[in-house]
Amino acid sequence: MKMNRAVEKMTDFYKGNYHDIGHFLKVYAFAQTIGQGEGLHAEAQELVELAAIIHDIACPLCREKYGSADGKKQELESPPLVEEFLVEFQLPKEIVQRLSWLVAHHHTYTAIGGIDHQILLEADYLVNAGEGNQPKEAVRRMLEQVFKTATGKRLLCAIYLREEE
Q1: CA 164, CA 68: separation in Å to the nearest integer?
Q2: Taking the complete model, does pTM exceed 0.70, yes or no?
């Protein structure tokens, strides 16, 4: 699987939307960092990284169709987009299905379905917290209730919960 090709393809997909491109690149970097920090094996690491690259694939369609890209709308619209995006990579059907599920559920913080899902949630939140200027109370709640990986927790604390010096 060629991550560089996926990044290029996703960048083209966003048609110059600087925010969307920057967002997925940051989520990709955090997912890569968390996965490596947690010692994922190579196949799981590739899966997490690819999921991070395409995690918001439904956002442009949802904004156009519904006027917003909330999680439930992305869950509904992303599976066919993911499948179409991945055709050229010739991945096994079960990998495509897993990626489709991860992308559809990357805003689902309950019943987390595996380490790949956990890492994707954490990576996306690390970016969203900064982009949305989340208050420290909300960040602390995520730390206590959602974040599970040691690497993700360290990053969240280092970025958002540092005490004023």
Answers
A1: 36
A2: yes
